[in-house]
Amino acid sequence: MTSWSPLLALFLVIPLVGAVLTPVVSDSSGRRSWGWAVFIMSVTSAMSVSLIVRVLEEGPFSYVIGGWVAPYGIELRFDEFSASVAIVCLLGLLAIVFSRHYAPQALTPERIPYYYTLLLLNLTGMLGFIVTGDLFNLYVFTEILSLSAYALVAISGEKTAEMAAFKYLVMGAVSSLSILFGVGLLYALTGSLNMADVTSRLAGTAHAPLVMAFAALTLGFMVKAALFPLHIWLPDAHAIAPSPVSAVLSGLVVKIGILGMLRVYQMAYGSGAIDLSGLNLTLTWLGAISIVMGAFFAVFQDDIKMMLAYSTISNIGYIVMGLGLASSYSLIGASVHVFNHALIKATLFLGAGALIHQTGQRTLTGLAGIGRSMPFTTAAISIGAISIVGIPPTAGFLCKWYIALGALEAGEPIFAVALVFGALLIFIYYIRMVNAFYFRKPQDAGAPAVHEAPLTMLVPVLILAALCLIMGILGRLPLSFIEPAVTRLLTPLGGG
Amino acid sequence: METEATRSILPMLAFALPIVAAMLTVPARRLSERARDVLLIGTATAVAAAALVLAAGVAGGTVYEMYILQLTPKIWMYMRVDAAGALFGATVAVLWLLALVYSLGYMRGEHRLGRYYSFFILCLAWTMGLAYAGNLLTFLIFYELFSVLTYPLVVHEETPEAMAAGTKYIIYILVGGTLVLLAIVLTFFSAGTQTLASGGILSADTDPMTLQAIFWCFLIGFGVKAAIVPLHGWVPDAHPAAPAPFSAVLSGVMVAAGSFGIIRMIFQVFGVSLLKSLDLAPYLTGFAAFTVLFAAALAVNQENLKRRLAYSTISQMGYVTLAISLLGMQSTIGALVHITNHAFMKGGLFLCAGLFIRRLGAYNVHQLDGAARRMPVTAACFTIASLAMIGTPPLSGFTSKWYLGLGMLETGNPWLLAVLLGGALMAAIYLLPIVYRMYFREPALTPEDLTLTEGREAPMTMLAPLVVATIITIGLGIGASLPGLPVALARMAAQAFFQ
Amino acid sequence: MEVVDARVAIAPAISLLCAALVFAAADHTFWRRFFSLSAALAKLIIVMSMLPGALKGVVYTFDLVEFTPGVGLAFRADALGMFFAVVSSTLWLFTSIYAIGYMEREPNRRRFFGFFALCVSTTVGVAFAENLLTLFLFYETLTICTYPLVVHDETPEAMRAGRTYLAYTLTGGAFVLLGSIWTYQLAGTMTLSQPGILTMEAGRTTLTALFVCLIAGFGVKAAIMPLHGWLPTAMVAPTPVSALLHAVAVVKVGAFGVLRTIYNVFGVDLLQELGVCDWLAALAGITIIAASVIAIFQDNFKRRLAFSTISQLSYIVLGAALLSPLAATAAIVHIANQAFAKITMFFVAGSIQRTTGKTAIHEFAGIGYRMPYTMGAFTVAALSFIGIPLFAGFVTKWYLSLGALESDQWIYALVMLGSSLLNAAYWLPIIYTAFFKSPREDALVHEAHWTMLGPTLLCAAYVLLLGMTVSVPGMPFALAQAAVKFVFGM
Fold first, then answer.
1. A157: how many CB neighbours lie within 10 A of its CB?
2. Residue C90 domain-assigned?
3. Is residue A494 assigned to a domain?
């Protein structure tokens, strides 16, 4: 396998260029832009595979753009955490494939090329965010993906979509500012933007500004992650966006907040300059509250996508709780869930998208009895539902397992209880959904017959549903990346 | 006297044949009524023959045994025919045969005969098994099956009274059975074995509290069936409700099965010496004596004939319990013999009662005025059985009471003779007025009231069993001392118990 | 002796495959029946083929996949697991035949038979689970797979019952999960082994809390009072489902979990030291009596069956909680005894409902003459529950009483006896109504279809067989004894 380092740079450049070129290659029907986007994402995915193979063989490696050595140049760093690019590529590819029939129905034809541009941009932002080695680029990529996300939410051009996007924009802008503020403070304190470098220089700096910097970063990422009580932008944005976008937003974009927090943690732990126990406690409690509140709100939704959006808040709660507990098991659990939740939520959103596309209905009442006419899609959604509640052997179970184990390890059994029983709350509304699909009579019998979704929709949904199962059974696969990373993260603390 | 036992298939046949017959009853009826009758009578005859052969063999000094089925790794379903069992088994089989033949006439035209006959013959199986059971668990198996599966016979008439009686019956019997089970579990736990051996299986160094518990559980459990007085409630209701042939075996065998259980418990679970050291038997004596007198006193006032006979049964079975509780050799002989004698006496009386119901429509005593004129044979049989019940020599009732009296003197309880005589006296008071009415009162019904078939002697199918029962009653009295007859077997049994 | 053998994994996999084929068969009735029956048969054969080995003491193991590092999805067929597997795969065959007859004209048969097979798959998975995680996995999957069966009728009552069912069982599942995680944290392993994996080092309070956690989790499905609420409500399900739910799969999985917790997670010695089992035994004793008392007042036949199930399941729990070898024998054997007797009763209930449309006991007057064989089978099962000797139920009663005495807790011997009286009090009236009350309409003999009658009679016959041939080698009892010897290190 190649050891050609510039591949890492190319990995970002290709989707970026592809995004920009999409309107150019497009035709009037938007069919060509779809093909182009699929091609670009396929190439990117292939590259991500080769990068991951390399990190497995050689361990973390980095590429310095322009040949400038860190800390001065722009460093791209690929470590085990970065293996998450695989999931980004996969989801991105599937979302784009899914869009073939979905986009023409949801959007006016002239917007379709820009839709793919934004989607590719968004994915590029995410890939960049994951592999970047310095704080400023972290901010830059955050902005790329945030801005494209605002636009994607609004792309249908409907009034509600614009309102949702505006709400998202306001919250997002504040959080971006907060992140920028934190980055600036850190630069002022250490004179460096490279994360590894900052980490090594943090020890011995003034305490108060340091705390403030970390607080600003954490707050910013918390908004991005839609942690309660900063979640208010999420339900509308995720529910109103086109379904493939929802899948990407819910599955990936909110995770940026989480990954950001992980990065911050890496620095804080690495330097040992700051005591995080207060923050940890806060995060743990906020996580627990998020689980419950998300579930609570979701129970009362009739709109299927709204329900899924609130479910995201709950799941972010899991992850944040795992981070807050800060024991090796819980960190593993949280990290695993970053991946798995992405898969699961994408399954659900794409599945819901297929239902909406075929029936034009988006409420549970309207979708009653759909299981008979769209058996595969509903089966996939059901698997996703089971998975997100954390029934073994599905993917969602691993997170529950590890975070609960971590809670016990950290000597906080109360959170293990909260987690395990919080999952039950979540189950309540998924049961409503499954009931509606399978066990309720269709609302009006005279409605025209509904057929199963076209293959470009069905296949991604089924692949994702299968992955929900496979990643549960082969749970050790992501763990082989995550465990060394977490161990490294915790080494300075003497934990792990 | 632990003689080497001989393997024999007869004890198993004695209960297996009726089970097969019970299954075939309904199919046989499809063939023809005659086929069913032949099947039933043939089976009962075969069982009676087997029982008599076994009894003869046991009288000759052999003990038969048969391992049937391994129930659990430690416990077999095990049949063992000793003297007491052989005597009880022979009694059961013969009385059953009589009652069955009687049924063929008595039950003609009744509803649900398939159910009646199946269960009737099935109960024979359980009772035979009970008689020949070689260990406590086997005993329990047959005891429970017997108790529960008798229910359809008790409620056969399906009248509201019968149903109420049936409910009462099943509640009493199940509670009793449960206590028996508890006792057996405790015994198994304390002794580790259950084979009924002479001299007892419980050892003297068992915890006295446990021994007490076992004793009382057994006593109350079997006492329900043996109708010891505070536990007798089901008897007076069940007897009038059931069809007459079944009342006969209910009184003659079923109640006796309880007494038989008490015999097994006292002599073969505890053993005489252990029980004497525990000093529990006097309680039993007290209860039994009270039962004899109390039930007899109640019998006097019963207007319903079968009800009166039922109270008489309670009283008579009290004799058996009384005799057992004395723990004397002679009295034990008396107890065993009285079970047999009473079976035929009381069986005979109930068969008479059935005939009065069928032929005269007479359920109550006052309806029997002048019955002797229309049914001389039946009346004669009734009279003989009554006299035997009172204990008039040379009838069979006298024999058992003689041994009972001897036993009371032997064990130094002469005051109990008063109970013995009091019971006999009261038997006279409740039975002789009926005889008087039959022979010396004018019939209350005029001939015009009766249709042609009524008011005459019953057909032979019903009369013959009655006559045979009466002859046995006489024969057991006159020939009491002949070898091979109950007294001889009972003596063997008692010798084994007191060796 | 441990042998790696794929059969332990194939056994649950067969029903999984069957479910897939049934779903794939769409509306082809023939193929659906063919797959259901042949899978049931194949599974029975595979399980039975392991029986001779299991009786000789061979333990078959198979590690399927390492689920997460250190904790795998692994199967292990020891005597206890084999016992449960034998019972459930035998009953699956019977129930499948019955269900084919029963569901003849129902809608959604594909869904029904598919999930039915899945349930059995998971049940055998529970039986063969090598560690707590595998156990939990199948335990939870069973919950999910049963739901479509419970709400099969799609009526509002069915939906409500389904909700109740899920609320209870999922909460139970959460407790089990918590307990499993905790165990792993304390012991560093989850492998169910002899004699338990926990030690006193963990501290008395922690162990007690863990015990409560696990027992509460498994106790929901085992319907220990006060966790029994779902069971009577779930009666709205079609009868073969109730049979499966109440006799084989769901409730027994709970009871089996309790057994595993007691014998293989904690171990007898540790529990004796800990003393928590006294409480469990008390709870089980109360359940036995209270559920029976409630059962007496139920007029709906299936509801009465449900409360009887609650009572009977606690026999198993009680037997395990007494911590004596004899009581343990009773507990394990009762898994089979209760299963066969109860499934007979459910088959009877279903046959009556299908043939005459009657569900309330007071309507059964004279039904014994319309359906003599069916009610005959019912009588056999009832007598077994009452504990008449020679019937299966007696074996349990006998060993449990002895076990109570052995562990010096005579009060439970009394409970057993009281319970059999109560059993009499609620079964005998049914027999009475069926056979001794005059029918309201013409008493034409009108039995159920043979696909329903056949399994009913076979199960009833098996109840007798279980009671009489206890010591015949190859019968479940021998397995139970092997299990007990293993558990108590005898």
1. 10
2. no
3. no
Tell me the residue range of the domain where A366 lies.
7-489
Given this model, what pLDDT does residue B394 score?
A: 83
Torsion (CA) C71, C73, C78, C81 in degrees, nearest 10: 120
Indicate the burial class of C209 (C-beta count within 10 angstroms; 0-12, 13-18, 19 or more).
Answer: middle
For chain A, state the CA radius of gyration. 21
Q: Is the dihedral of CA C327, C332, C335, C340 positive or negative?
A: negative
Tell me which of A58-62, B264-268, B300-304 is least confident. A58-62
**What digits encode the pLDDT tens for the residues C257-301?**
988 888 888 888 888 888 888 888 888 999 989 988 998 888 888
* Domain membership flag for residue C413: yes
Q: How many domains does chain A contain in total?
A: 1
Residue B341 in contact with residue B486, Cβ under 8 Å?
Answer: yes
What 3-state DSSP class applies to B35? helix
Residue ranges making up the domain that contains B345: 5-497
Does B145 contact C at CB distance below 8 Å? yes
Q: Compute and round to an integer the Cα radius of gyration of chain B.
A: 21
Number of structural domains chain C divides into = 1
Test mutation, C337, C369, C373, C388, chain B, max B CBs within 10 A: C388
Q: C-alpha distances in angstroms, C281 versus C224, C319, C337, C386, C416?
A: 11, 8, 20, 21, 12
Out of B137, B141, B182, the one facing C413 most closely (by C-beta) is B182
pLDDT of residue B386: 93
Average pLDDT taken over every residue of chain C: 83
* Contact status of C212 with chain A (Cβ, < 8 Å): no
The label of the residue with tokens 């997100």 reads A388
Task: Enter the ipTM.
Answer: 0.74
- CA C423 to CA C432: how far, in whole Å? 14
Express each pLDDT in A254-313 by its tens digit: 888 888 888 887 777 777 667 777 888 888 898 888 888 888 888 888 888 888 888 888
Digit-coded pLDDT (tens) for A466-492: 988 888 777 777 777 777 777 776 665
CA B107 – CA B114 distance, rounded (Å): 11
The token pair at B192 is: 């580790």
Q: Identify the domain containing residue C489 by its residue range.
A: 329-490
Q: Using CA atoms, how far apart are residues B246 and B313, in angstroms rounded to an integer?
A: 14
**Residues present in chain C in total:** 490
Q: What is the pLDDT of residue B290?
A: 92
- In angstroms, the CA B328 to CA B234 distance is 30
Peptide bond preceding A413 in cis form (omega within 30 of 0): no
Domain assignment present for residue C33? The answer is no
Joined together, the tokens standing for residue A317 give 């709660």
pTM of the model: 0.80
Task: Tell me which chain A residue has its CA closest to the CA of residue C170.
Answer: A424
Contacts of A397 in chain C (CB under 8 A): 137
CB spacing of C141 vs A421 below 8 angstroms? no
Task: For residue C464, tell me if it sits in a domain.
Answer: yes
